[in-house]
Amino acid sequence: MAGGAAASAALAGCSGGGGEETETTETTTTGGEETETTETTTTEDSGSFDVTITQGQMPSGLDPHDHRETTTDIVVLHAYEGVLTRDAAGSIQTALGTNYERIDGENAVRFDLREDVTFHNGDELTPEDVAYSINRVVDEEVSFASPQSDQLAGVAGAEVIEGENAVKVNNSSLNPIVFSEFATYLDVMQQSWVEENDKAYIGQNMNGTGPFQLDSYTEDEEVVLTAYEDYWQEPAAVDTLTFRAASEASTRVNQLLQGETDLIVNVPPQEVQRVTNSDNARVAAAPSTRIIYNGMRYDVEPFDSVEFRQAMNYAIDLESIVQNVLGGFGAQTGQPTLPEFVGHNPDLDPYPYDPDQAEQLVEESGYAGAEIELNTPVGRYLKDLEIAQAVAGYIDELPNVTATVRQRDFGSLVDELLAGSIEARPPWFLIGWGEATFDGGLVMEALLASDGTLTTWQNEEFDALLEQAGNQSGEEREATLQEANAMAHEQCPWIFLNQQYSVYGVNDAIAWEARSDERIDAYAMSQQ
User: Which of 441, 468, 436, 437 is nearest to 345 (CA)?
Assistant: First the structure.
């Protein structure tokens, strides 16, 4: 009975059971007598294909323009779509747009839109909706100050092309990455629906054009979506899609192996073997576009010293952290831009482990005896707490610095980081940043430019390099971004940590492959 119960539980998350019993009556005549034979047969049906996904955190809300977390993106992107998108390999694909091109001397772009697309409330998509959605993100006077404005860096606004099912997007400059931006960001919302509802309602409801529509939302507990039958492409194979969260990795693994969920994020290295050896699940992994780092505020002691910030990088054994804490599911970094990104500088190596050099630099900084506290989320990133503890542990081993760790709720930490000013941010924190455009310029604009969304550093020379890159293309832009990476490496606004690998646990009954952009696309799922 125990084995039967376990098998049933393992399948419960993916398929509905049942079938139909059919009675067939056959009449035969033998020797002048009629005989009726009734045969009962059971016809199996495929049942309902239901999938549950468990992340480390629940979404912060359902407004696709009012957040900055991948955990929220993963949920809302099932209901909302953009004019462009990317396939699993990262290539740009059309979505609500059918054609895109540069116009007006290439400082503007045009998107032709798809016909016969409906929102989940049944209304048809219009070019006014697309233009409004773009303006809602880039112009705070349209609705609110969207934390995603820099994701469309260089976009000044949008307007409908009169008499056509098309939109014109105006750029403040050449904007060499405009199509890359729109392939990754900008979810289209219905203008009338947004304007008719208040901010709280929009944050708890959904009305997109995507393959799934909202069934129910219990804040901080569960989001349930169902397949949208009038989707402009083929309806999703998944009938019901449920999102839940568990901050503890061991809890997520147990839920997967017990059949309580079908896909989990951030399987820790020590649990990989258990998942791989199970009867009902497997591990799927891919290098991600996410960099994990420790931000250090340049305007507060002791982090206002370049020597002290450099010391923090020499103090940690990053190679050991990648191998022993992450089990090899990661790669060392020494600059803001990952190797797969435009602008990566191949001449820069990660900082070596050199505690003697770290101790000397601390003395030179004038901050010997400093006491510092590392703010870290728990369960948001692969082994985030353990990475933070290892970093603080190495630094605390220096004879002239004391370091401790403070565990933080991810939501409250993000609120502080998005507060709008450097002064509101913690002096020292662990955070991750995923950039699905594969563009180093956008990473540095958001995280290191003086007016960046999460910046902890201000440097006029660095800002000038980013501005210069914004008006260049091709090899010229690549060279300028490489110079900016070299400056960041030398100035150390961060403790450079690791490129995160996305490590998932997946129910064997589901056909699905991990993507490098961290998107969990349930529309691409099918039953095995």
Answer: 441
In Å, what is the CA distance from 84 to each residue of 113, 163, 366, 500? 10, 22, 52, 26
Reference 135, options 197, 210, 189, 200; nearest CA is 189
Burial class (CB in 10 A: 0-12, 13-18, 19+), 60: buried
Label residue 400 exposed, middle or buried (CB < 10 Å: 0-12, 13-18, 19+).
Answer: middle
CB-based contact 189:64 (threshold 8 Å): yes
Both tokens of 437, joined, read 């455009």
What structural domains and CATH numbers belong to the chain?
Answer: 81-190 (3.90.76.10), 288-501 (3.10.105.10)
Rounded to the nearest 5°, which phi and psi values hold at 224? -120, 125
- Which amino acid is it at 180? S
| 188-211 mean pLDDT | 98
Nearest to 66 by CA among 210, 203, 186, 205: 203
d(CA 173, CA 171): 5
Query: 248-274, pLDDT tens digit by residue?
Result: 999 999 999 999 999 999 999 999 999
Short-list 64, 105, 66, 98, CA closest to 81: 64
Query: Does position 39 have pLDDT exceeding 80, yes or no?
Result: no
